[in-house]
Amino acid sequence: MNRKKKVVSTLKKKAKKANAKLAPHSNKPRYISKAEREKMALEAEAIQQTESVQEEPSAATEQAAAD
Predict the structure, then answer these.
(1) How confident is the model over 21-62, as pLDDT tens digits?
(2) What is this structure's pTM?
(3) HEC profile for the chain?
């Protein structure tokens, strides 16, 4: 009986580990290092600057057309 119980328990352990690997992980966000955060902030700032530069000439041409 002990041998049978031991075999069943080891198979259950293996099945439990396999299911744990397939199960979805927590909703915890992926870690982003400080350097990556700074890099992303600089990229976002650069995009905002290019958008603001593109908007300014169109505003200037509208004022010139109104005069």
Answers:
(1) 888 777 888 899 999 999 999 999 999 998 888 877 665 556
(2) 0.42
(3) CHHHHHHHHHHHHHHHHHHHHHCCCCCCCCCCCHHHHHHHHHHHHHHHHHHHHHHHHHHHHHHHHHC
